[in-house]
Write a structure and sequence with these properties.
The chain is an all-alpha fold and 122 residues long. The chain has three helices and no strands. 63% of the residues lie in helices and 0% in strands.
């Protein structure tokens, strides 16, 4: 004869994780009660602000290179080569800045994950 199936309270596969039991706007979200939610979690607004900042940096650096190229063209009379080279240099500089910012953010996130992991296992 087969054993009866375990009740939902006894079966760990059927338990609802704590993070899913929280209601939107619940004050305990991000507190020390939930070990999976870090206290330093960024809000959606902060993440959007960082993304907008990086996008504006990309656009403004590219436009800055173009403006410097136009200024060089006006000064030396090399139209359109200064603008073309300035646009290219601005674009390359913008991507270098974007990659560096991404690498810094990834290193910061990795350090925070390692610190949280170390604190959980002490």
């Amino acid at each position: 004869m087969e054993d009866p199936p375990p009740s939902p309270d006894e079966d760990p596969r059927l338990r609802i994780p704590a993070v899913l039991r929280l209601q939107p706007g619940d004050k305990s979200r991000g507190s020390s009660q939930d070990p999976h939610t870090p206290d330093h979690a960024t809000t959606d607004f902060q993440a959007a602000a960082k993304a907008w900042g990086m996008a504006l940096d990309l656009v403004l650096t590219t436009i800055g290179g173009l403006i410097l190229g136009f200024a060089f063209d006006w000064w030396r009379g090399t139209t359109p080569w200064g603008a073309i080279i300035g646009l290219g240099l601005g674009f390359v500089t913008a991507f270098i800045r974007l990659i560096r910012a991404s690498l810094r953010a990834e290193a910061r996130a990795k350090a925070q994950r390692e610190e949280a992991h170390k604190q959980r296992h002490q």
